[in-house]
Amino acid sequence: MDYFLTEEQLMIRDLARQISDEKVLPVRAELDEKEEFPWDIMNTLAESDFLGIYIPEEYGGMGMGGFEFTLAVEELSRACLGVSTSYAANALGTYPLLLYGSEEQKKTYLPDIASGKRLVAFGLTEANAGSDAAGVQTTAARDGDEYVLNGTKQWITNGGEAEIYTIIAITDRNKGARGASAFVVEKGTPGFSFGKKENKLGIRASSTSELIFEDCRIPKGNLIAREGMGFIVAMKTLDKSRTGVGAQGVGVAQGAFEAAAEFAKDRVQFGQPVISIQAVQHMLADMATEIEAARALVYSVAKYIDTGVKDVSKESAMAKLFATDVAMKVTVDAVQVMGGSGYMKEYPVEKMMRDAKILQIYEGTNQIQKNVIGQALIKETAKKK
Fold this sequence. Notes:
alpha+beta, Butyryl-Coa Dehydrogenase, subunit A, domain 1, Butyryl-CoA Dehydrogenase, subunit A, domain 2, Butyryl-CoA Dehydrogenase, subunit A, domain 3, 3 domains, 10 strands, 15% strand
């Protein structure tokens, strides 16, 4: 469908596709096999100003919005979800600074982020704080003009590779979720180290590592917003970023659909191309319809968020939920259309299927998204009474 993109938006989409076709496709299998972080591709994206799409011009960015960012994410995901995860996680880590950072923090960090000089990661998840984000155990104790961090973050995307980390830690245990605060911690700070790099089912080109804080001292000026704002910072960050995950779902589904359709056109069975068989046509028809529906939802929600409306939890959850469920279904069906060939590493869809599963899990499982949507519906119903 024609979404009536502006000239600038078309430029971003087309350039992202060009980078995907020329830089990502030739190496995606190797990156997956070797679990190799895609530094060359990230540098190419930085040189193309893609790391600053959503960052205001005054801080060295392109001054665009989340919608333009989703266009880039979608195209990268069409080629490799591991690469797009490395790219999208940079935005996830940046949003706390964009949304709640002080002017001094923005001037300190955003220009380097926009230029790609320094990558970013977001540190929320822990062994006992996944879906239950309020269960964070990492602490940040005030000591004069410093905070002392202790604890471990788990499954952090871009962990070990990023230079800047936005971290959620507890400053007052007695206040529960309202006792959490957000901080900036730089790689190389004494007391901040990295644990094991995870060996994953999919998105193997992205780095997923533990972050370990052992009496890690940071200046009080590294506090984002104010004490007790950490949970709000985290939730508003996820509200902004979930359309990016939705765009990943649309992209990987599109890539799998294209591979399956091309295979079905060339593969001959019973004296005719597989695509001529009605059962296969019906599968492809469902895939194409679901992808277009997911794209329309993700685009509309991304544009809605860019208007500056304050409460977008329900809509961003819907976009993430629907598009990532579509991604899982379409990638599984793509393998089915291609039969035994689809199961082999010689073809890309087995990787796409492995990659797609994480989209239903990270940045809030899809069951959590339904909780978010359900709670919003309850509030809306109460207002109407």
